[in-house]
Recover the amino acids of this structure.
């Protein structure tokens, strides 16, 4: 079966984004393992956690677009993205508003707790709905197994959108508070750069959430039978999401490289100063 032009473009974009994420994640893992790594911070750890899960979904989608594993990971992803954005926005707020106490708020233990919460969040908010639906767990890995699955996926999509709208409102509110604090504090420049990254990510996420909501309504109303319309809206939602993830991880790599260069320059300057003092 030959692909249409839009399907070919979408598949090509998926493969490109998957490759970008693999290369970027490899570099970030390398940077994290450096003896004096400057990215062993909550923001980077949480971002990388989200990128790993997203990469798993993209990789499984590259292998099989309608694969069962991919559908389960995407169910988890679509709930995770909104809450992760809210947590990262909160992290940026404390980095700017309380920059001198930020590391105490986001210690190793609290970061681990946030990681566990984020991984569990989709299960916490949606497993009850799936369990109460006779076809919930049957349809989750395969939306085409029977006709009822269209409505199951539609309701699931609406729940994901409600969750993302609530977390999105929280992210926008905290972002507005952060903007008000930027000029009032002496927060490091890197905190502002990461805040801008968070804002750009949230903008793409708004487009994705609106598109995802339309897809959910189409499933419920039975409009998904119009494959051309359903595929167009779904692909638009996925393109917005893929773009968001690619921009996020590329930006993270650029900031990481900047931090590593700065830390090396500081180390060299410290060494020279020490040698001069000894002489």
């Amino acid at each position: 079966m030959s692909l249409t032009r839009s399907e070919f473009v979408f598949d090509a974009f998926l493969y490109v984004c998957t490759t970008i994420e693999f290369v970027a994640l490899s570099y970030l893992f390398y940077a994290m393992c450096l003896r004096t790594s400057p990215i062993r911070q909550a923001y980077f750890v949480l971002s990388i956690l989200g990128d790993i899960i997203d990469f798993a979904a993209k990789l499984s989608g590259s292998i099989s677009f309608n694969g069962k594993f991919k559908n389960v990971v995407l169910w988890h992803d679509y709930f995770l993205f909104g809450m992760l954005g809210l947590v990262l926005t909160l992290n940026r707020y404390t980095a700017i508003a309380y920059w001198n106490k930020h590391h105490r708020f986001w210690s190793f233990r609290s970061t681990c707790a946030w990681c566990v919460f984020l991984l569990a969040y989709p299960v916490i908010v949606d497993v009850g709905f799936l369990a109460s639906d006779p076809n919930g767990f049957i349809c989750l890995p395969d939306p085409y197994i029977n006709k009822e699955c269209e409505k199951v996926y539609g309701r699931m999509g609406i729940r994901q959108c409600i969750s993302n709208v609530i977390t999105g409102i929280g992210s926008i509110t905290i972002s507005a508070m952060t903007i008000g604090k930027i000029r009032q504090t002496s927060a490091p420049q890197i905190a502002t750069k990461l805040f801008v990254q968070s804002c750009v990510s949230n903008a793409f996420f708004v487009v994705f959430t609106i598109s995802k909501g339309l897809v959910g309504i189409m499933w419920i109303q039975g409009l998904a039978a119009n494959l051309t319309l359903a595929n167009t809206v779904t692909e638009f939602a996925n393109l917005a999401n893929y773009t968001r993830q690619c921009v996020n991880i590329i930006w993270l790599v650029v900031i990481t490289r900047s931090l590593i260069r700065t830390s090396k320059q500081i180390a060299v300057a410290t060494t020279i100063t020490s040698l001069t003092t000894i002489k």
Q: What stands out?
A: Residues 203 and 273 are 45 Å apart (CA to CA). The chain has one domain: 5-278.
